[in-house]
């Protein structure tokens, strides 16, 4: 059976993974009671671990430096307790082989070089170009699934990433192209970035290390 993290860890970690989130988003991500999440967030605010922020017209909770350190301390203790580190490290290694391909695909979705402008924005009028990108995203959908399953078999809080990615891709295939990379929805890019942040936080790694 995979290890089930405590609500106390999940609430702090949910804010870390999402970067900025309200209580409802954290509760939804981990299937937690909304009132429990709100109480814990207020407790963590009093501890100096989270603070309310606003950016580009939206607001939510974000970790302070102290909250980030506390989250990493709790994650390290969980890895020690569960002896799950080897499985998480192995999955992280597999993820890295896919990550560069995902970043290239998203770049190609956003940019379509032209002779006069190698950084020209993709206006999505070239159907063949876009379909090649979507084929890359579909292959990654299949290939990231076993990575997600390996992670979820060790720690239950990793559950759901492959399913969320597939759900976003289904919307793209139905013509809702914003679900490739739009940041404020559960797009392919949002899900992928959250999984990457989850792995980095769990293993105590800095992005790019």
Features of this protein?
Arc Repressor Mutant, subunit A; 209 residues; mainly alpha; 2 domains
Structural description of this entry:
Helix 1 (7-18) crosses helix 2, helix 1 (7-18) packs across helix 4 (65-82) and helix 1 crosses helix 8. With 209 residues, this protein is mainly alpha-helical. It contains eight helices and two strands. Strand 1 and strand 2 form a beta hairpin. The chain has helices at 7-18, 23-30, 34-47, 65-82, 85-110, 127-154, 161-173, 188-203; strands spanning 50-55, 58-63. It is globular and about 55 Å long. The protein has two domains: 7-79, Orthogonal Bundle (Arc Repressor Mutant, subunit A), CATH 1.10.10.10; 84-203, no CATH class. Strands 1-2 form a two-stranded antiparallel ribbon.
Q: What are the low-pLDDT stretches, counting only 5+ consecutive residues below 50?
A: none
Which percent bin holds the helix content?
Answer: 55-70%
- Give me the strand/helix succession: HHHEEHHHHH
Instruction: Round the mean pLDDT to the nearest integer and report it.
Output: 95
Q: Roughly what fraction of the amino acids lie in strands?
A: 5-15%
Task: Report the end-to-end length measured between terminal Cα atoms.
Answer: 31 Å
- The domain tally reads 2
Radius of gyration: 18 Å
Number of helices: 8
Main structural class: mainly alpha
Order of neighbouring strands in the sheet with most strands:
1-2
| Coarse shape | globular
Major sheet characteristics: 2 strands, antiparallel
Number of strands: 2
